């Protein structure tokens, strides 16, 4: 009997804190959207440079991707928040710094997603565009990218799921995302089980929802014979 | 300065890949309205020649004039030159993400900066010409090989080029699809669309070819009216080549 009373008491306190945790969803989504966006802006040009660029550029891109894919996110966050940005004279707030670091890192990963997609398109597409009189850039923009971006969608969905889960690590800088808030609740209630379950559940919902949305985009972007079945 | 009637003039073209010499001094002229046939055994440099002619590959030596302009000159805008040269590939190379109509119109829109409506109108006209106006809104994957190649021809035609290069346009097609492509090409040849055709289709060469260049080992070893060369080749290599082709066709029709 006392056990049930305990549980219900707990439910009540957690219910009180639930809106507080839910608010973290917005912060988490902000981290994800910012990280993915910056990652896209960095990753796509890097991929193009890696495939079509000068040898020097290719090496530069490889070093960039290699660095950001090799160093743990936790180390990157500390490095940029306490090290690089202050050294450059910037005192960034935790959220901005986290978004930038997630973005830089995702740029490295996304460059490889896009590079693979670009390289999967047959050389003949590019040659045919050039023979029509298109410049290199026109060929890439009008012929290669519309195909490569479609092909890259599944890999990109994966990147969304990864960055979503990795965003939780930003709690170390005190960004008010889901995990940070959940930890505060746990400290206040001294009850870890239910709050952490809720946090986990929120991540499941966000992963599922986001993946679904990208799948809808994928379906909409489908062209017979290019992606998906005929 | 070549006269006005000469669309393409090639002089002493050389190209090597490393130590392997692929083209060893190729010279010829293509007159307006002419259909020039190029054939020869594989590895004789035919495709490399075509790729050199629109500067997809830079020749090591030699000069090329297109409508009187020396296009091997480094100051020439390559993209401008290529607009004047239609190219039809063995593997079609249609843009997979675009409909047949868009495949034909994109060059007009992007390269010639034409308005979309105008480009679509011309594209539709070209598709009609190759007998595909009903398939305008299909994607390449929804077309047969022969239809794809006809779209590719329409794509080349739409740019209103000075000359069209065909690089073995029927070699990747099933035998029953070759006919429809050759018919389109013949019709264009009769309309006096200037073209250079790398092909082993001897029927085509004999009906519409004005001159046949036989290439072997990077050189033009024999040239003349297609009928004459196919029936009475003088050079040893040419004889062997056409003998093999005749045997192949004899076997197929048996």
How does this structure look, described?
The complex is a heterodimer of chains A (230) and B (254). Chain A is mainly alpha-helical and 230 residues long. Chain A has a single domain (8-221), classed as MetI-like fold (Orthogonal Bundle). Chain A has eight helices and no strands. In chain A, α1 (2-52) packs across α4 and α6 runs antiparallel to α8. The longest helix of chain A has 51 residues, at 2-52. Chain A starts with a helix and ends in a 9-residue tail after the last helix. By secondary structure, chain B is α/β, with parallel strands linked by helices. Chain B has two domains: 1-84 and 165-254, P-loop containing nucleotide triphosphate hydrolases (Rossmann fold); 93-160, no CATH class. Chain B contains nine helices and ten strands. In chain B, the strands form two sheets. Chain B has a six-stranded mixed sheet with strand order 6-7-8-3-9-10, sandwiched between helices. A four-stranded antiparallel sheet of chain B has the order 2-1-4-5, with helices on one face. In chain B, α5 (145-158) packs parallel to α6 (175-190). The radius of gyration of chain B is 18 Å and the shape is globular. The model of chain B has no long low-confidence stretch (mean pLDDT 91). Chain A binds chain B through residues 122, 124-125, 127-135, 138, 142-143, 146-147, 150, 223-226, 230, and chain B through 54, 56, 79-83, 85, 87, 89, 91, 93-97, 106-107, 110-111, 139-142, 155, 159.
């Amino acid at each position: 009997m006392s056990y049930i009373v305990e549980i219900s008491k707990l439910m009540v306190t957690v219910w009180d804190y639930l809106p507080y945790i839910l608010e973290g969803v917005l912060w988490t989504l902000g981290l994800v959207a910012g990280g993915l966006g910056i990652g896209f802006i960095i990753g796509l040009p890097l991929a193009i440079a890696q495939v079509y660029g000068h040898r020097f550029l290719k090496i530069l891109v490889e070093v960039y991707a290699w660095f950001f894919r090799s160093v743990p996110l936790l180390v990157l966050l500390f490095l940029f928040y306490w090290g690089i940005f202050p050294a450059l004279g910037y005192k960034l707030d935790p959220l901005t710094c986290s978004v930038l670091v997630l973005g830089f890192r995702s740029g490295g990963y996304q460059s490889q997603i896009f590079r693979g997609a670009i390289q999967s398109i047959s050389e003949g597409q590019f040659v045919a565009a050039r023979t029509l009189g298109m410049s290199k850039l026109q060929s890439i923009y009008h012929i290669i990218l519309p195909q490569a971006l479609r092909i890259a969608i599944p890999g990109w969905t994966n990147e969304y799921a990864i960055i979503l889960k990795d965003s939780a690590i930003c709690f170390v800088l005190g960004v008010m995302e889901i995990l940070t808030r959940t930890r505060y609740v746990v400290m206040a209630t001294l009850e870890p089980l239910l709050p952490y379950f809720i946090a986990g559940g929120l991540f499941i919902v966000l992963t599922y929802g986001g993946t679904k949305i990208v799948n809808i985009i994928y379906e909409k972007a489908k062209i017979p014979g290019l992606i998906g079945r005929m | 300065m070549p006269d006005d009637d000469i669309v393409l003039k090639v002089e002493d073209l050389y190209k090597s890949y490393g130590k392997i010499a692929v083209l060893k001094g190729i010279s010829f002229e293509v007159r307006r309205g002419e259909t020039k046939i190029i054939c020869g055994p594989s590895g004789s440099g035919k495709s490399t020649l075509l790729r050199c002619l629109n500067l997809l590959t830079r020749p090591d030596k030699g000069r090329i004039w297109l409508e009187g302009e020396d296009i091997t000159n480094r100051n020439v805008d390559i993209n401008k030159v290529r607009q004047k040269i239609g190219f039809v590939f063995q593997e079609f190379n249609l843009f997979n993400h675009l409909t047949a109509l868009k495949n034909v119109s994109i060059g007009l829109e992007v390269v010639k900066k034409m308005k979309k409506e105008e480009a679509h109108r011309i594209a539709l006209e070209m598709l009609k010409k190759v007998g595909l106006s009903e398939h305008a809104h299909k994607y390449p994957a929804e077309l047969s090989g022969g239809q794809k190649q006809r779209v590719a021809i329409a794509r080349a035609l739409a740019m209103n080029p000075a000359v069209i290069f065909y690089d073995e346009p029927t070699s990747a097609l099933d035998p029953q699809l070759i006919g429809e492509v050759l018919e389109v090409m013949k019709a264009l040849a009769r309309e006096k669309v200037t073209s250079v055709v790398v092909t082993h289709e001897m029927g085509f060469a004999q009906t519409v070819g004005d001159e046949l260049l036989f290439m072997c080992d990077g050189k033009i070893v024999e040239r003349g009216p297609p009928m004459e060369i196919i029936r009475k080749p003088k050079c040893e290599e040419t004889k062997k080549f056409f003998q093999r082709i005749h045997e192949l066709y004899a076997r197929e029709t048996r």
